[in-house]
């Protein structure tokens, strides 16, 4: 069994990006600049956005954090997005999800200039991805592809089962694993809350990508020997013994599933750090495209 070490691989990627930034600096060029908008004070979202800003510092990017209150109106947020769209200093930006109820997420995603949409959530970019055109691939699916690639995990002709159909992970992942190329060329089953007999499906899978958000959902009895398991779950579970008062738990019963798996991602230290590294990669791509 091989652990797909997202912490290590993400550090390698950050080193590669830092080397690119160093070259830009040596040539006197502008370095990539990522901005993040966060609306409200959800603890998990603040942590993720904080990690994104810290990662920018680590590779030598400029970063801007825009914090808006929980009572921000849709119009106020759209104005801020317009400002970032028009600011030539900003190469790419993200609007951290989820958003408060008074804001329509679809309107927000549509307002982001696709050339600065380093999350790859705008319909233009999502459509390009589905059509195998060059574009920003959403960071979490992009990170999973990169892990499979760097560990040389065979995907061609395999049966990939994706659990969860979110716009951020499950849906794009199902498209990417089925597309021509590597990683890809697999036969994909997309499962969700209305799927019947899920164990029957997961037990036929060569590769399982779980993005459900239900702790310890995937049990050893649900998988076959030598399965490849990618755990995207990151649920906070109360744990008084930890300094923060909680621990992060994945969708997979790691202790038992890892005994049957050929490759498996841990939580934490698997997909999570890869997401941040790929957001940086998309921002570097955005900077390079803005130079053209
Ligand atoms: N919320 C959870 N994951 C993500 C992500 O990748 N991007 C944004 N913008 N919000 C998120």
Automatic annotation (TrEMBL):
Keyword tags: Amino-acid biosynthesis, Histidine biosynthesis, Hydrolase, Methionine biosynthesis, Multifunctional enzyme, NADP, One-carbon metabolism, Oxidoreductase, Purine biosynthesis
Say if the entry is tagged with keyword DNA repair: no
Instruction: List the molecular function annotations (GO) for this entry.
Output: methenyltetrahydrofolate cyclohydrolase activity; methylenetetrahydrofolate dehydrogenase (NADP+) activity
Residues annotated for NADP(+) binding in this entry: 164-166, 234
Domain (Tetrahydrofolate dehydrogenase/cyclohydrolase NAD(P)-binding): give its ranges: 138-290
GO annotation, cellular component aspect: cytosol
Q: Which GO terms describe its biological process?
A: L-histidine biosynthetic process; methionine biosynthetic process; purine nucleotide biosynthetic process; tetrahydrofolate interconversion
Q: Which residues form the Tetrahydrofolate dehydrogenase/cyclohydrolase catalytic domain?
A: 4-119
Q: Identify the EC number(s).
A: 1.5.1.5, 3.5.4.9
Describe which pathway this protein belongs to, using the record's wording.
One-carbon metabolism; tetrahydrofolate interconversion
Asked if the keyword Acyltransferase belongs to this entry, the reply reads no
Q: Report the superkingdom from the record.
A: Bacteria
- Read off the SUPFAM superfamilies from this record: Aminoacid dehydrogenase-like, N-terminal domain (SSF53223), NAD(P)-binding Rossmann-fold domains (SSF51735)
According to its UniProt record, which reaction does this protein catalyse? (6R)-5,10-methylene-5,6,7,8-tetrahydrofolate + NADP(+) = (6R)-5,10-methenyltetrahydrofolate + NADPH; (6R)-5,10-methenyltetrahydrofolate + H2O = (6R)-10-formyltetrahydrofolate + H(+)
What does this protein do, in the record's words? Answer: Catalyzes the oxidation of 5,10-methylenetetrahydrofolate to 5,10-methenyltetrahydrofolate and then the hydrolysis of 5,10-methenyltetrahydrofolate to 10-formyltetrahydrofolate.
Give the family per the record: Belongs to the tetrahydrofolate dehydrogenase/cyclohydrolase family.
* Known partners and oligomeric status: Homodimer.
| Name of the protein this chain belongs to | Bifunctional protein FolD
Taxonomic path: Bacteria, Pseudomonadati, Bacteroidota, Flavobacteriia, Flavobacteriales
């Amino acid at each position: 069994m091989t652990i797909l070490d997202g912490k290590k691989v993400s550090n390698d990627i950050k080193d590669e990006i830092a080397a690119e930034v160093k070259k830009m600096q040596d040539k006197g060029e502008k370095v990539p600049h990522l901005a993040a908008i966060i609306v409200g004070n959800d603890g998990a979202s603040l942590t993720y956005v904080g990690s994104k800003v810290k990662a920018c510092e680590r590779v030598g990017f400029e970063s801007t954090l825009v914090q808006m209150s929980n009572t921000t109106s849709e119009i106020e947020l759209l104005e801020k997005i317009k400002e970032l769209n028009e600011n030539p200093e900003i190469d790419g930006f993200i609007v951290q999800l989820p958003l408060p109820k008074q804001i329509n997420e679809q309107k927000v995603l549509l307002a982001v200039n696709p050339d600065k949409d380093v999350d790859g959530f705008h319909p233009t970019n999502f459509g390009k991805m589905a059509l195998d055109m060059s574009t920003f691939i959403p960071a979490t699916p992009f990170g999973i592809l990169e892990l499979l690639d760097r560990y040389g995990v065979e995907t061609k002709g395999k049966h990939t089962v994706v659990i969860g159909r979110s716009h951020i992970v499950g849906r794009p992942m199902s498209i990417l694993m089925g597309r021509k190329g590597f990683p890809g060329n697999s036969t994909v089953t997309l499962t969700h809350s209305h799927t019947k007999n899920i164990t029957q499906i997961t037990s036929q899978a060569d590769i399982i990508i779980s993005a459900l958000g239900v702790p310890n959902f995937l049990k050893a009895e649900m998988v076959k020997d030598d399965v490849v398991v990618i755990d995207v779950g990151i649920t906070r579970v109360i744990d008084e013994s930890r300094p923060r008062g909680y621990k992060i738990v994945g969708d997979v019963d790691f202790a038992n599933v890892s005994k049957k798996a050929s490759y498996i991602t841990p939580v934490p230290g698997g997909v999570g750090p890869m997401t941040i590294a790929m957001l940086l990669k998309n921002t570097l791509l955005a900077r390079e495209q803005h130079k053209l």
